[in-house]
From TrEMBL:
It comes from the Bacteria. Residues 54-141 form the SbsA Ig-like domain. Signal peptide: none annotated. Residues 327-539 form the Glycoamylase-like domain. This is Beta-glucosidase. Transmembrane segments: none annotated.
């Protein structure tokens, strides 16, 4: 047994070692509070698909998860939801997973609209740290398939489309000249080719009773008088653009400041059609026909061979001559130029100019198959659909043949290839379907392009499918239903259908173009009654000229 002294010594030793051990041990480590937190996952309606979502419904649940619980009060000031144009959209907020997930639910998004949901670094965690990197989510809402207008019969719909679209040329025609403005924002700038389309549309409108005969005749007299007395011409040919008040040329480009033979041909196609329509023996109509003949006979088609070459040339400038030097060679929208050149009784061209200049001695032939359809003429996959519209507003392709093609087959094949391409939709463009198709020249968001299966930018132009009614009636009517009933709240306006739209990156034009509105009226009427085909093809010079080029058919 230890005595008291021994106990005291032992206790001192234990105390010494205990104190020494305590003085040498490290304190508990200090864990720093993170200065930021991170994004973890994103789901829209329960699906994760990166940061871009399409066909989104009006009230999607957008769940965004983070690495730590959030400070709820910071969400409203750090999350924004707005359209591409910057219009804010309201939303509600809920929290899940111990506040580490925020669920944003819009109160109601507009259809066919692109929204951007942004989360800024001002978002805070429950502990006060900031989000490390901002987020942005793109949402494109789905089409609202409900009908925007009451259902009417197809005949009533065609009537409505013709009547409404005609207003572009009649109600919106230039007040001084009566000619068609280039587009609805062009002011005094009128288009010679678009005016030719408009003249044909006015004839259709008179025939349908949309315009009285007297008013239609007065408008035609105004147009023809202006063209004869005020409008600038060069060797009988008109420029692309004119000032509708003065008749002075408006340059289309630096070198394109004179004659445009293609635009002139569209104008003459319309004037000849009007001449055939106003056939009464009274003084007013007799004078109108004489004035039209003055314009028609004044075009020096043969001079545009540029020193007797076996081709016609598109442009001529009064100060730069043949600087553009562009041959009019097929297959494209300009067949009408050679038909009119061969039909002229004052300045006609021989068949060899057609065969070598236009047909390239057979070079316009294609013969390959695209999307199950054999294409007789032109570039692979057909090119833009206006190739089969502009010249065929007056030229009736039904049963029409020459050495190079059957033109009924050609026009139908091109339209079907365009349709089949859009149905196949190899680029995955939004909205393309059996009900939504048609690639041609039109406005696009921020510009203009000639859309086709080889230049597909996701833009559909109503004129493409509607003006193809004579070729693809079933497919064109399906598209017309879709444009009017499904998209009508965005696409239908004062002068009919707006020029174009894009459902991939949602955009709807607010523009109207004469060269796109014209074929809608004219080809719809040709589909319904064949009126404009019948009138143009009844002109004796046209019959003779086309026969001289080797054309054969029931309408010659």
């Amino acid at each position: 047994m230890m005595n008291t002294k021994s106990n005291l010594v032992f206790g001192a030793i234990v105390l010494f070692f205990a104190c020494g051990k305590s003085s040498k041990s490290n304190p508990d480590p200090v864990i720093p509070v993170s200065s930021s937190f991170t994004f973890s996952t994103l789901k829209v309606n329960g699906q994760a698909s990166g940061f871009s979502y399409t066909n989104v419904n009006a009230k999607p649940a957008i769940a965004i998860s983070f690495s730590t619980p959030l400070g709820q009060a910071s969400v409203t000031g750090s999350v924004s939801l707005a359209t591409k144009a910057g219009a804010a959209a309201a939303y509600s907020v809920a929290f899940q997973h111990h506040d580490s997930t925020v669920v944003i639910t819009p109160t109601g998004l507009l259809p066919i609209t692109q929204y951007s949901l942004k989360v800024s670094t001002a978002l805070k965690s429950a502990k006060g740290s900031n989000l490390q990197s901002a987020l942005e989510v793109q949402l494109t809402t789905a089409i609202d398939s409900t009908a925007k207008f009451p259902t009417i019969t197809d005949e009533q719909l065609l009537d409505l489309v013709e009547r409404q679209t005609l207003k572009y040329f009649y109600d919106f025609g230039h007040p001084t000249s009566g000619l068609a403005r280039e587009r609805n924002s062009s002011g005094d700038v009128v288009t010679s080719g678009g005016s030719g389309f408009g003249i044909m549309a006015i004839v259709a409108g008179i025939s349908r009773g949309y315009i009285s005969y007297a008013d239609g005749l007065a408008r035609m007299q105004k147009i023809v008088s202006f063209l004869n007395t005020k409008a600038q011409k060069f060797h009988g040919a008109f420029p692309h653009w004119l000032n509708g008040a003065t008749g002075a040329i408006v340059p289309f480009s630096t070198q394109d400041n004179g004659a445009d033979l293609v635009e002139t041909s569209y104008l003459m196609q319309g004037l000849i059609t009007a001449r055939q329509y106003f056939s009464s023996a009274n003084a007013a109509e007799t004078q109108l026909r004489a004035d039209i003949n003055t314009l028609w006979n004044g075009v020096e088609w043969d001079w545009f061979r540029q020193n007797d070459q076996n081709a016609l040339y598109w442009h001529w400038s009064p100060d730069q001559g043949w600087a553009i030097n562009m041959k009019i060679t097929g297959w494209n929208e300009a067949l009408i130029v050679y038909v009119l050149g061969a039909s002229s009784t004052t300045h006609n061209i021989p068949k060899t100019v057609y065969d070598q200049g236009w047909a390239g001695s057979g070079g316009i032939k294609n013969g390959k198959t695209f999307y199950g359809v054999t294409l007789p003429l032109g570039p692979d996959r057909g090119g833009p659909l206006f190739f089969e519209h502009y010249s065929f507003l007056g030229i009736n392709p039904t049963g029409l043949t020459d050495a190079y093609a059957n033109y009924e087959t050609q026009t139908k094949a091109h339209a079907m290839i365009n349709y089949n391409y859009c149905v196949a939709n190899p680029l995955g463009n939004g909205g393309y379907s059996a009900n939504c198709w048609g690639l041609t020249a039109s406005d696009i968001d921020g510009g203009y392009t000639a859309s086709s299966p080889t230049n597909d930018v996701g833009v559909i132009a109503p004129t493409a499918a509607i003006a193809s009614l004579p070729y693809t009636p079933t497919q064109s009517m399906a598209a017309l239903h879709f444009f009017y009933y499904t998209l009508g709240d965005k696409l239908w306006g004062q002068y009919g259908f707006y020029d174009a739209f894009n459902l991939t990156n949602p955009w709807f034009a607010n523009s109207y173009l004469a060269i796109d509105q014209g074929p809608i009226v004219v080809m719809t009427e040709n589909y319904r009654s064949g009126l404009l085909w019948r009138l143009f093809m009844s002109a004796p010079e046209i019959k003779t000229g086309m026969k001289n080029l080797g054309f054969r058919g029931p309408n010659l």
